[in-house]
Amino acid sequence: MASLRFRLRQRYWRWIAPGRIDAYLQTAPEPKLQIGAGFNLLSGWLNTTLYPFAAGAVYLDASQPFPIPADTFDYVFSEHVIEHLEFDEAASMLRESARILKRGGRIRLATPDLAQILAVYTQPEADAQAGYIRWIMDNFRPQVGEYNPAHVINQSFHGWRHKFIYDEPTLVAALEGAGFDMITRARPGESADERLRGIEQHGDYVGSDTAMRYETMVFEAVKP
Fold first, then answer.
1. What residue ranges do the domains of the chain occupy?
2. Using CA atoms in the order 122, 153, 185, 193, what is the torsion angle rounded to 10 degrees?
3. What pLDDT, on the 0 to 100 scale, is given for residue 73?
4. CA–CA separation, 192 and 152 (whole Å)
5. Is the pLDDT assigned to residue 216 strictly greater than 90?
6. pLDDT of residue 6
7. For residue 58, what is the DSSP state?
8. How far is CA 29 from CA 32, 73, 78, 104, 106, in A?
9. What backbone phi and psi angles, to 5 degrees, belong to 122?
10. Which CATH architecture has domain 2-113+166-222?
């Protein structure tokens, strides 16, 4: 019964989403789309998520075509979402993001860096890696009873239901394949564009800004 109620609720979310998107576009002077907002609702943004439990969030399945007209948004932002999609689904999300952006529009993606995740196994004694190992094991796998890099890597994949974790070349190639150019790497919270500064909140969500900064890479790109 609970499963049926949830499916009906999701169907309702999907049904009302186009109207809420249209209403946002009619009033937003500079439309900005957040994909996978969760409870991090950014002021002035269209905050979308697969499970819009937060008041003001709008339903959007990032793996499917967006119910959004082409060339309508100035910005797209997505934080720790793309790794939860299969590679082909993520490619679709990037193509749809390019489609709905205006020419010159900018996308900002924050996602785990595969190189940093693997470094906990190849360089476990380094200060940054050792700190990340302790954080993972203390908070998510304390029952293991030791600081084990193999458990950290498995937590990063299976434990958080990640489906594809990118390294820098693979993410850059995916952005290029979706039609973006002017691809640049940034630090979390930092951007040459003031509208994209300080919008990451994953550190608050996981309870550690240090761990978030260790594992996260951020890229921005422009629709030509």
1. 2-113+166-222, 114-161
2. -140
3. 98
4. 33
5. yes
6. 76
7. E
8. 9, 10, 20, 16, 16
9. -85, -25
10. 3-Layer(aba) Sandwich (3.40)
Distance from chain centroid for Cα 153 = 19
Please give the order of strands across the beta sheet that includes 181-186. 58-59, 46-49, 32-35, 73-79, 101-112, 216-222, 181-186
Per-residue DSSP letters for 133-178? HHHHHHHH-GGG-S--HHHHHHIIIIITT-S-PPPHHHHHHHHHHT
What integer is the mean pLDDT of 102-127? 97
DSSP 180: -
pLDDT digits 0-9 by tens, 126-151: 999 999 999 999 999 999 999 999 99
**Sequence letter at residue 142:** P
**Rounded to two decimals, what is the model's pTM?**
0.94
Q: Is the dihedral of CA 156, 161, 163, 169 positive or negative?
A: negative
Cβ distance 70 to 100 under 8 Å? yes
Q: What is the pLDDT of residues 161-206, one digit of tens each?
A: 999 999 999 999 999 999 999 999 999 999 999 999 999 998 888 8
SS (H, E, C) 100-130: HEEEEEEEEEEEECHHHHHHHHHCCCCHHHH
- Pairwise CA distance, residues 219 & 108, whole Å: 6
